[in-house]
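Internal ticket #5521
Category: modeling
Description: The requester needs a full-assembly model to guide mutagenesis choices. All entity lines are attached below as received. Residue total reported by intake: 468.
Assigned to: D.W.
Attached entities:
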Amino acid sequence: MEYDDVKSTIVELFRKAETELGEDVIKAIKKAYEIEENEIAKNQLKTILDNIDAAKKLKVPICQDTGLPIVFVELGRELCLDFDLKKAIIEGVKLATKEIPLRPNAVDPLTRENPGNNVGLHVPQINIDFVEGDKLKLTVMPKGAGSENTSALKMMLPSQVNEIPKFVVEVVKNAFGKPCPPIFVGVGIGSTFDGSAKLAKKALLRDVTVMDEYELRMLEAINDLGIGPMGLGGKTTALAVLVEKGYCHTASLPVAVNIQCWANRRASKVLG
Amino acid sequence: MRKMKEILSPLNKDDVLKLKAGDIVYVTGEILTARDKAHIRILEFLQEGKELPFELNCRIVYHCGPLMKKEGEWVAVSAGPTTSARMNASTKKILEKIDCIGIIGKGGMDEEVVRALNGKGIYLAYTGGAGALAAKAIKRVRGVHWEDLGMAEAVWVLEVEKFGPCIVGIDAHGNSLYSEISKRVEENFKKVISKI
């Protein structure tokens, strides 16, 4: 594996994530379209499905908000890399921005200056995990701001375990139509302040069609709110609630809710 | 089925006044993109009494930061709506200086904008995230103003044909689908959390 393999894979993965949604995501949207009864809601879901088709056919980004680039790396511990992995990812993002193209979204948080290439301090966000084996798995997740802006984190009390679902539903209620519902709700429970947020984000990488009872209970409660697609009413407010847990300090209970729009864009490839 | 209507831009105020919240419409004609920074600059121009480089009255403002590509001429690659709520405060002030307007966006706008649109204009909801489909309806890029604000924040003058479906989210008579739904959601929330 060479530097250029990683760089070109990053471009390929962003292209895929931006123009085609995963089968699980499409399946969830189609199912919602079939069971939705509200006329405006059905119209919105139809437009979403038509848009997914158009983006795939025309090979253009599904949404003009091509997101902030986030990359997850699973590094096999037996792997020896004699090149700068981070640099390969960063250069890949620059090339992807130019070639696909991606909208230059990354700016300095205070001056709001935009370098125009989606690269800057801590951007792309690169998360590295060590795993067994001798392979390198790259996953990209371009994250849009409309949904990210409605996310929330709360340091709950250890005695409030039963109130977690209420907090999750409340975050969705406050988000209303802003995050482009129907949404995916990533929930991180436990870990630390920052760790819970990371878990919530990682939850969004899971197969969205597989949920346990706890997650389904929250999904049902969210869909009883009646926000509907784009906040125009209906029974499809969320398509999935996905929870990831991490051990936490006995005195704390961090809970993070990371909201994702219907375009849950991600793509992965294993190298090596 | 609701009636599907086509509205033309520049707008005819009588046509705008006829639309009702919940109507499904398609837009044909000229629309201008504007989001956070463009709204601030429009407001600066209007407050200083300076002439805008584009006409705003009887026009449609599209809350959109498009992804554009230059292939000789500018082409819209993906151009769906952005969250309109960020423009609540500036829109209210801009509307004081405008007689007739249409807004396309997503997620709705607040009660003050609903009041400011009364007798003046409409808010149309276009499906958030449907950037590829929106770009298909953009037939030509007529020009760009304030390019110094960056690709997403500049004012792009777009020629669209049957841009939609758009839902009339707020009409010119004080009706807002968002206000109605928001009230219902608050009631539902109380019921939902008592059960969970």
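Resolution: model delivered.
Comment from assignee: Strands of chain B lie at 4-9, 24-33, 59-62, 67-71, 73-78, 101-105, 121-126, 138-145, 155-170.
Ticket closed.
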